[in-house]
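Reviewers of the previous submission asked for a worked example of the structure-prediction workflow described in the proposal, so we include one complete record here. The input consisted solely of the amino acid sequence. No template or homolog information was supplied to the procedure at any stage.
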Amino acid sequence: MAYVSPNETREYKSSKTSYSSKYYDPQKAHEYYLQNRELKGYSTKGLSDEGKEVWKVAKSNINSEKKNKLKEASENYKAKVATYRKIAADKRSQILETIKSALNSIADDAKKQRLALSLKQKMEKSKLSASQKSERDSATKTSESKINSETYISKQRKEAIRDSSQRKVEKLREAMKNTKATSVKEALKRRINSEISDRASKIKTETDNSAETKQNIRDARAKTLQAISDKYKKSATDLSNEYSSLRETLSEKASAEKQSKRDEKQSALTDVKNSMNTSIEAAKKELESKKNQITSIYSSIFNSEYSKILATHAKDETTSKSSSRFQITEAQQAKLKQMRESRRKRKRGV
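From that input alone, the workflow returned the following structure tokens.
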């Protein structure tokens, strides 16, 4: 069955009838009539056999054209939906790529800041170690200096004791040489022995006192070194805690920024989805409206074509009653009668 677009002006004219329309091709009408004897929607009781054939063909072509129009509207709808989905997919890809880049940037920045913190912590820890070593060295040096000083002073004191004692002993010995009295010599000898014994006692006392002094210096140094160690141990702990807190703050900040970007992504994806759904819903409503419009237009075409065929191919009233569901006015009846008379005259060759 040939399809003719409503935009074409070509018409088919049958040699058997005065009905002409783009929806009727008399060349295939009879064949179609034999294949499709049952009609639907419109009553054909008021039509002649030729009218039934004409209506059947016209109806088929109208339905075909209507179907093509509906198909075209559906294809346009599908194309719009595909476009909206493509736009949404592109926007989603762009959003995901943008957020991925932002997340990587946040991670890179956080990594750089962590490295900077680690380097700064190492530098400050190194400064603490250097300062601690300097204080320990200073305390040790001061202690050693005091011990050396005490050793030197103690040595000087012991030398002074020996020198003083030795002079006394020499004087006593000289006195022994110059006396002949045995009792005096014995007395001087006892004094010499006493001086020597006293000298040894004094030297021992000096040695013990010096040793005690030096031990006190060493003890004080040990306490000083321990205090320095404790102080720097606390400083190192405080430094570690400080940088741990800074790293934790940095991690929390990075996590918050990442979560913000993820929330931003989710919101943007939701907006894209809602926008796409809104556009598709609008296109769907437009499709329904277009279908209703096409249905309305072709309903009018059906009525118009049916009325024209009924006007030109009604049954002869002398042989059959019309059972058409359409009410024909008196003017239309007069026109039909006139048209039938014209056909009879043509058949008689008048």
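The mean pLDDT is 84. We consider this example representative of the routine output the project will generate in years two and three.
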